[in-house]
Specification:
It comes from Rhodobacter viridis. Helices cover 42% and strands 12% of the residues. The chain is α/β, with parallel strands linked by helices.
Length: 330
């Protein structure tokens, strides 16, 4: 799968970004304000200035139609129930902030729905942490969040426990971190930890969660688990030799989305691949370097919903389809 074609870069100004998000991304004034961190009145004023020569000129409705058509195409191709695509505006380099903003809106809508879940499971990662940082303050006292895996990294800001605390504060909900490491030293130690009452309680709650929100990692040396020291070089070499392509919840999968049997898998303290079946799993991932990993997860139907950026969404298509959506690539 090749990366999609890129349009010429545009100036990174508030005017050009707001205009592009409105005309090509099809976002509302409120959504643009959320993305850019601006009040709605300021966004309205920027849009009132009119388009500049640096910004492409398709009609606003056409840009929105492209986003909807691309979302529908991905749903059909991969059997997904929902696809939320965050348009990458001029000047956007890192897809994480735009995906996080879209994921936060997606989660808020889910939590405010009439059939809102009572328990939501969260995984780890930079995108999950960025999503939580984008959530507005709400009071959802009957809601529970549960961590789907143990401590991830020595970097304080990336601890799942910190993310769980932040989401509890923002939403007024209860939060239940998983009081263990992600990987045990041996399979025997993993079995012992699973017998601990507090660990068992949290993992049982994870099974009760109606919705899981998960990040998706790569099966390569750039994987965050390896970079943080949770997976050593020997484990990484082993899983890569076995054909690791995708990582979710600390578990590694091949390019068809089958979990790899390995010594690491036997020491992993997180829900098993079989637990994904029949569950509403929302995957957050972006960047063309994640396309192979995403394909693996989508082929195996590990996800029911996807939140991604426009560049990644286009790159998920077959090569001959990508040109149809070139207008979405700033």
């Amino acid at each position: 799968m090749t990366a999609p074609p890129h349009r010429l870069p545009h100036p990174d100004t508030p005017e050009s970004r707001a205009r592009w998000l409105h005309d090509i991304g099809g976002l509302s004034v409120e959504e643009i304000g959320w993305r850019l961190g601006l009040p709605s009145e300021r966004v309205q004023a920027l849009l009132a200035q009119g388009p500049t020569e640096a910004v492409p000129h398709p009609e606003s409705a056409e840009g929105a139609r492209l986003i909807r058509r691309l979302s529908r195409r991905l749903r059909e191709q991969f059997g997904l129930e929902a696809v939320s695509i965050a348009p990458m505006a001029p000047g956007d380099v890192d897809p994480v902030p735009v995906i996080a903003a879209a994921a936060a809106r997606h989660l808020v809508r889910l939590l405010q729905a009439r059939n809102a879940p009572a328990v939501v499971g969260l995984s780890h990662g930079r995108t999950i942490a960025a999503m939580v940082a984008q959530l507005p303050e709400m009071r959802l006292t009957g809601l529970r969040f549960v961590s789907l895996l143990g401590e991830l990294t020595f970097a304080h800001s990336a601890y799942p426990h910190v993310v769980m605390n932040q989401i509890a504060q923002r939403l007024g909900a209860q939060a239940f971190p998983c009081p263990t490491a992600l990987y045990a030293a041996t399979p025997e130690e993993a079995a012992d930890l699973l017998r601990q009452p507090m660990v068992r309680k949290v993992l049982e709650m994870a099974q009760q969660a109606e919705v899981w929100v998960v990040g998706i990692g790569r099966g390569a040396s750039e994987n965050q688990l390896h970079q943080s020291g949770m997976i050593d070089d020997a484990d990484l070499s082993d899983i890569m030799a076995r054909g690791a392509t995708c990582e979710i919840l600390g578990r590694f999968f091949d390019d068809e989305g089958h979990e790899l049997p390995s010594a690491l898998a036997a020491r992993t303290l997180s829900p098993a691949a079989s637990d994904f079946r029949g569950r509403r799993v929302i995957g957050l991932a972006g960047g063309v370097d994640k396309v192979t990993a995403l394909h693996a997860a989508l082929r195996a139907h590990l996800l029911r919903e996807l939140v991604t950026d426009s560049r990644t969404a286009v790159a998920l298509l077959d090569d001959d389809e990508q040109a149809e959506y070139a207008a979405l690539l700033p």
